[in-house]
Design brief:
Layout (H helix, E strand, L loop, with lengths): L1 H29 L7 H9 L5 H35 L11 H15 L5 H25 L6 H25 L3 H8 L8 H20 L1 H9 L1 H6 L4 H23 L5 H13 L3 H25 L8 H18 L7
Helix pairs in contact: 1-13, 2-3, 3-8, 3-9, 3-11, 3-12, 3-13, 4-5, 4-6, 4-7, 4-11, 5-6, 5-11, 6-7, 8-11, 9-13, 12-13
């Protein structure tokens, strides 16, 4: 009876979240340097009518908003997986080197192969994300004491700073800083439908893997010995989850650049809403991550319109105090 009640409660919360996402989507589509009415947004989505306003919606604002929602969902889910898999409440793709590695790989790719396709950029970001994570966890495991949460975060901060400096250095040396700036600023300016057609399926694949393995993540988050005792092939599960994290983080960077704290904040917030079962945490993280990123992007577009405030700066302003608060509470801010 308790399980049915929890599931019913989750369904209600999930439906409310979906309604909230729809509301935020329409708000984000209407506010900006060019104010657009909700009827115009609806008309642009259901008809082929022409006009300047409708063209702005279809070719500029709609792909951008879909991109930031996908990125929010991708980073939130990857953060949830990392926190559950490593039992590290401070885990985040941006803090543990994944987005930094993907960002550095993106810079190198644009410098060496300026005409590289969006698909090629995405593959480069996958490789960079895996390399960044490998370096961080390699450093964390190199000394006695193993994978303590604080050691991993410190290693991640050092590696991420180095990788960001590498990306900046490559941009300056090869004189491609302007081409890289759209991504390194952490924004979705100029997102095209071609980019979405290539990157959205990758994010969807990563999320599907995460949902499929959500029960295993719950078991891993409790105790690895218990997981082994229940017959779980922890090595295979962790490898599949790592692939999902790399896909999600790499695809997010390929769309909007290096972004930290979303994968840290959203899972903690979600756990306060739905509890500690990852069968509920991962789907809810998709919704809350998309809402958060869309709101941050809308604020960035409207705060000093027609100028834009980088969304990465807005996320960092919120994320750094959140990180310090969780650190102060020993990772138990919302549990």
């Amino acid at each position: 009876m308790g399980k049915k009640k929890n599931a019913f409660s989750f369904i209600n919360k999930f439906i409310i979240g979906c309604i909230g996402l729809i509301v935020v989507f329409f708000l984000s589509m209407t506010f900006g340097a060019a104010d657009i009415s909700v009827p115009d947004v609806w008309k642009a989505m259901i008809s082929n009518a022409g006009g300047e306003q409708l063209s702005i919606i279809r070719e500029i604002r709609l792909p951008r908003e879909l991109a930031v929602m996908l990125v929010g969902a991708a980073l939130a889910v990857s953060g949830a997986i990392m926190q559950g898999m490593t039992r590290n409440p401070l885990a985040d793709p941006g803090l543990l080197g994944l987005t930094g590695g993907a960002n550095a790989a993106l810079a190198v790719s644009l410098a060496m192969l300026p005409s590289l396709s969006p698909f090629g950029i995405m593959i480069a970001c996958f490789i960079g994300a895996a390399a960044g994570a490998g370096i961080v966890f390699g450093i964390g495991a190199a000394k006695k004491g193993g994978f303590s949460p604080f050691k991993i975060v410190l290693a991640g901060a050092a590696v991420s700073t180095f990788l960001q400096a590498l990306a900046d250095g490559v941009g300056l040396y090869f004189k491609v800083s302007k081409n890289i700036s759209m991504w390194t600023a952490g924004g979705a300016i100029g997102t095209t439908w071609i980019q979405l057609q290539i990157i959205a399926p990758a994010i969807a694949a990563g999320i599907i893997i995460a949902i499929f393995l959500s029960r295993q993540v719950t078991i891993l988050s409790l105790n690895e010995e218990v997981a082994i005792g229940l017959g779980q092939h922890t090595g295979r599960v962790k490898f599949a989850l790592f692939i999902a994290i790399v896909i999600l983080a790499g695809a997010a960077v390929a769309l909007v650049g290096n972004m930290a704290f979303i994968g840290l904040m959203i899972p903690h917030i979600v756990r306060a809403i739905v509890g500690t079962d990852y069968r509920y945490i991962i789907p809810t993280s998709i919704i809350i991550g998309a809402i958060f990123m869309s709101l941050a992007d809308t604020v960035g577009r409207t705060l000093y319109a027609p100028l834009e405030t980088p969304v990465a700066a807005i996320v960092a302003i919120l994320g750094l105090p959140f990180f310090l608060f969780i650190l102060h509470k020993g990772g138990k801010a919302f549990t």
